Amino acid sequence: MRVKFWGVRGSLPVPGPKTERYGGNTSCVEVRSAAGTRIIIDAGTGVRRLGKDMMREEFERGQGTAHVLISHTHWDHIQGLPFFAPLYQKGNHLYVYARRRDDVHLRAVFASQTDDPYFAIPIDETKAEISFRELADSARFEIGDVGVRCARLNHPYVATAYRLSVDGASVAYVSDTAPFSDILFENQFIARPPMAIRPLPEPDRAKLRAMRDGVVRLCEGADLVIYDTMFTPEDYDRYPHYGHSRPQDALDVCREAGARRLVLFHHAPERSDAEVDAVLEATRAAARQARLALELDAAFEGMDIALGTEARGTGETTG
Amino acid sequence: MDVTFWGVRGSIPAPGPGTVRYGGNTSCVALRTSAGAWLVLDCGTGARNLGLAMTADEAPGTFASGGAEAAILLSHAHWDHIQGFPFFGPLYVAGNVFHIYGAAESSARLEGILEGQMAPQYFPVQTLKNMGASIDIAALAPGTPRDILGCRVTAAINPHGRREAMAFRIEEGGRSVVYASDAGYGENGPSAEALALYRGADLLIHDSTYSPEDRARYPQRGLASVDEAVAAALAANARRLALFHYDQDYTDADVDRLLDRAHHQISKAQSPLQVFAAAEGASIRV
User: In terms of CATH, what superfamily is A2-314?
Assistant: First the structure.
C-alpha cells in the first residue's frame, strides 16, 4: 500500500512563501493498493494536482475508476472536486462516499457546490459517471482489495474517520476531530467555549467515551495514523468549540491503539513552515518522554509512504 | 485612492513554490479612499489576509474593536470570488457594518447565494447571522451610478462563459479605478457599455487569465487573454493597466511572460499606457 499526501492544510488553502515546504493545499490523501485500487480520502484543493497526475494513465483514456472517501463536507475537504480532471473525461467512474445524514443527501451537497451561480459546470453535466454512497457511522465495506472501516468523529456537523487495510498493512485517517473530553459536537452552532458556562452532562460524556473507544479501535495496530492536529494547546484553550485536536491528543490515541507511526495533519492556515517544524519537534520530545515507540512526522505535500508488502518490497519510505 | 492586491489568481488557489512571487490566492482587491473609506473588490481567499491586516489595529472604532464600516463589491459568485468571505475576520466583529453589492436578480437572491456558502454542511458557522457584523446585502443594477461610502460607483455587465460578471468603476477625489475581472468578450471585444465604464480610467484592473494560445484553447471559459486586456485598455484610453486573475497553472515565469507580451503590444501601439502585473501584497496609489 502506498499513501501519498496532496493537501495537508486545514480551513482554507494558504499560498505563499511561509507554506512552501509543507504546502498550502487543503486536505487530500491518496491510497493505492499494490493491485492498483485507488482511494482518495478527502477532496480539498490538493485533489486538483492529483487529478492532473491521474490523467497520464487510464483516466486519460476514460477507463479509470476512483473512489473518494469524504470525512465530512466542510469546504476544505471538498473544494477541489470540481477541479478534478478525471471528472471531465467520458468513461471514467467516480464513487463518492460520505456519512449519511437526515437533513441533506450527499448528492445535493455536491450538486449545490457546482450549481449556478457558484461554478460553471454542474456536476450532472460532467462527462464521467459519479455514484454517491452514503455510509452509516460504523460502516464496514470493501473497495476492490481494500477493506474499509468507519468511525464517528467529534466535529461540528459530524465527521467520519476511515481505516483502510490491504497488502498486509493498515492506515487510519482521523480528521477532523476535537478531543473527546470537553464538548460533544453534533449539528448545532457553538458560538463560544461552553465549558465555563456548564459542566458536560453525563450522557454527553458517555457518548464521547464511546466515540473515543471507537477511534482507538479504528487505529488499533495501524501501521500509519493520520490525525487532525491543527491546534496547539494554546489554540485549543481559546477555541475548543472549533472541533480540532492537539498533537498530544493524537499521541494518546496512538499509544492506546498501539499504532506504529503517526503523521500530524490538517495544519492550521496560519502555521508557517518553521512553526510546523517546531510543533513536530515538540511532539517528538513528548513522545520520547512518554517512551512511546512511535515514528512521527508532519505531513507535507508530496510525502509518499510505502506500507506493508510494498514497504518490504522497496525497502524504505520516500519523502 | 490606495489600491492593494490581496489575491490575483483565478479559478482556485494555487499554493506552491511556483506562485510565490505573484501569489496563489484567489481574487481580492482592497481600495482605500483619500477619506479613509474601505471598498473591497471580490472576496476570494485573498480576503483572509486582508481581514488580518484590517484588524491589526485594535484602537476604538476600528475593524478589530467593532464600529468600522466597509463596502464589498462582488463581480459574480463563482467560488474564486466569494470563497474567502467566510474567512474574512472583520465580519466576525459585532459593531462593524458591511454593505455588500453584487449582480443578482434581487437583494434576497444575493443574500441566498452568500448564505448557501455558509450552510452547515459546508461551514461550521452555518449562517451569515452567526457572523456578528451587520451585513447589508443589496443587488446592484448596471448603468446608474450610486454613492457608496463617498465614492461614485458605476457597474457594467461583461459576458463570462455561461453567465456574466459585473465590472465596477469607482471614482473619488477626481480619480478612477476600474475592476473588470472575468471578462469573456466575444470577437468584437468589450461592449460599448463596458468601454464607457473603462474610459480614461487612472487604473484599469483587467482579467488577463491567459496567453492568447490558452485563450484559444479554452474559449468556453469566458476569460480574457493578456492581448484582450491590453486592447481594452488602449481602446478605453486608460492610463494604467493591471494584469489580473492569472490561470491557476501559471507559474511566476508564465506571468512574467504575460507582462512581457503586454509591454510588447503597448509599444507596438505606440501608446503611453503603463502596465504592471498585479502581485499579492503590492499597493499602488492612484
Answer: Ribonuclease Z/Hydroxyacylglutathione hydrolase-like (3.60.15.10)
